[in-house]
């Protein structure tokens, strides 16, 4: 099985911080690993790794659902590539 690396950049949540527990819970539910972090510009950055179908499911959740009370203006996923092994063992919030 080939895993996919996806970098999440600047999901817009102006004036709101992403509620980490919802993102971590969804990542665990879907079976992806990586991290997410709120930026000082009011956006979110992160990295998602796992099987392509699971990474795509997480991207869909981040684009269409997100955490409660969040306002998603746009999403940008970049630097997607196949990787031979995962760099993380779980999904976490960075500060």
Overview of the molecule:
- Helices cover 25% and strands 38% of the residues.
- It is built from two helices and five strands.
- A five-stranded mixed sheet has the order 4-1-3-2-5, with helices on one face.
Topology summary:
Layout: E1 3-12, H1 20-30, E2 33-38, E3 43-51, H2 52-64, E4 76-83, E5 91-93
Parallel strand pairs: 2-5
Antiparallel strand pairs: 1-3, 1-4, 2-3
Helix pairs in contact: 1-2
Helix content: 25-40%
What is the strand arrangement across the widest sheet? 4-1-3-2-5
Along the chain, the helix and strand elements come as EHEEHEE
Shape descriptor: globular
Overall SS class: alpha+beta
User: How many beta-strand runs?
Assistant: 5
Give the strand content.
35-45%
> Count of DSSP helices?
2
Unreliable sequence segments: 1-18
**Alpha-carbon Rg, integer:** 12 Å
Q: What would the average pLDDT be, to the nearest integer?
A: 77
Termini separation: 32 Å
Assembly type of the shown chains? single chain
Main beta sheet: strand number and arrangement?
5 strands, mixed
List keywords for this structure.
95 residues, alpha+beta, 5-stranded mixed beta sheet, 2 helices, 5 strands
């Amino acid at each position: 099985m080939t895993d996919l690396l996806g970098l999440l950049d600047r999901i817009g949540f102006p004036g709101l911080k992403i509620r980490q527990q919802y993102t971590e819970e969804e990542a665990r539910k879907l079976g992806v690993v990586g991290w997410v972090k709120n930026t000082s510009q009011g956006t979110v950055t992160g990295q998602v790794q796992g099987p392509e179908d699971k990474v795509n499911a997480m991207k869909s959740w981040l684009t269409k659902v997100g955490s409660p009370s969040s306002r998603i203006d746009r999403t940008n996923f970049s630097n997607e590539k196949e990787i031979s092994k995962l760099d993380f063992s779980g999904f976490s919030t960075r500060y």
